[in-house]
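Quick start: load a record and inspect it. Here is feruloyl esterase:
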Amino acid sequence: MFRLFVLALGATLAFAQSPSSGCGKSLPEGQELGGFYNATVNNRRFVIFIPPDYTISEPAPLIVSYHGGSRSPENQIDLDLFTDSKYNTDKMVVYPEGTSLSNCQASNTCAERYWSVDPRITADDVAFTQSILDIVQDTYCLDTNRFYASGKSQGGGVIGSIFACTPALSNAFAAFAPVSGAFYTPNVSPCESPFMFPIPCNPGRTNIPIIEFHGGQDDVISYNGSARRTGACLPNIPWWVESWAVRDGLGMTGETRQLADDTPNTTITQYGVQQQKGLVTHVFDAVIKHVWPSKSTNSDNNGVVAEFDATPIIIDFFDAHTLA
Ligand SMILES: *[C@@H]1O[C@H](CO)[C@@H](O)[C@H](O)[C@H]1NC(C)=O
Ligand SMILES: *[C@@H]1O[C@H](CO)[C@@H](O)[C@H](O)[C@H]1NC(C)=O
Ligand SMILES: CC(=O)N[C@H]1CO[C@H](CO)[C@@H](O)[C@@H]1O
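Running the structure step on this input writes:
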C-alpha cells in the first residue's frame, strides 16, 4: 500500500514522463554528447543528434525534423537550428531523409529527396517514421510523452497533412510544427480559387497541437493556395489552419495580434480558449517568402531576413505540450 502510494507520487512529480526502453543503456560505441550520426532502417537514412545534456537516466524529448523537397537532412540541420546550443541542449533531434523520384535517372535528379505528400512519391513515410521511432526509443533514453515533429515545405506537408492525419503517428507525436508547409491534397476537383476544399484527415485524437508558419510572399507554396501540380491541390493556408482548429473542436475563429512590438508585419493567430488557447496557432509574416523564418541569413532567405526567429517559438510550443 505504502509502496504504491510512493510510486504514484513519484510519477506525479516527474510530470508524467514515459521513459523509453533505451533508458539505462549506455550510448552506442563511438557516440558522444553533441555528436551527429548516420543510421539506416530498411535502406533509408536518418541522422541522429545526441543533445549535450543527454544522460541514460533522464528521459530526453525528441524532435523529428523533415527537410524540404529536393533537400537533405544536412540542409535541414543548417536551417532549423534545433541542434544549436543557443536554442536546445536537452532534446534529441532526428533528421529522416526522403526518397527520390522513380524516374530520377532520366532527369538526373537522384540526389534530390522528397516526401510522400508529393503526389509523385509513393514511399511509405509513415512506416519509415514509425521504424525510426521504434529504433531510437529502444537505443536512447527518451520520454515517449514528448516526441515532436517539425519540417519545412514538403517536410511540413508530410507531418501536417499525413502524419498528424494518421491514427498511429498523431498519437505518437505530442505536437506538430510545419514551416511553409506544402499541404498537397489529392483528388480535389475542381482545384481552383479560393482553394478552400475539405482536407481529408483521420487523426487518432481530437486535441492535436499544431503551429504553422507562412510567408505572404511565398512564391513556391502560395499563402492563398494554388493548383501547382497535376494530381494535387494546395489549400489556402488560413483555411488549412482553420480546418485544424475545427477538427480539434476549437471553432473557426481565432484571435489575431501582432507577434511582438518589433514585428509590424507579423501576426500570430491563436485558436482555442483558456487552457486550450493556442492549441492551433498560425504565425504569418506578410513580407517573407518560402523560408524558415530567421532574423539571420540562412540557406533559404538570401539575406532577406524575417522579423523573428521561428526556432525558439517552435521549441516553446513543443515544451508547452506533452502527451498524457
Ligand atoms: C552521413 O552521410 C552523408 C551522406 O552519405 C554524408 O554526407 C554525411 O557527412 C554523413 N554524416 C555524418 C554525421 O557522418
Ligand atoms: C490573399 O487573398 C487576400 C484576399 O482574400 C488578399 O488580400 C491577399 O493580398 C492575398 N495574399 C497574397 C499573398 O496573395
Ligand atoms: C508588406 C508590408 O506589410 N510591409 C510593411 C512592413 O512594416 C513596415 C513598418 O510598419 C511597413 O512600412 C511596410 O509597409
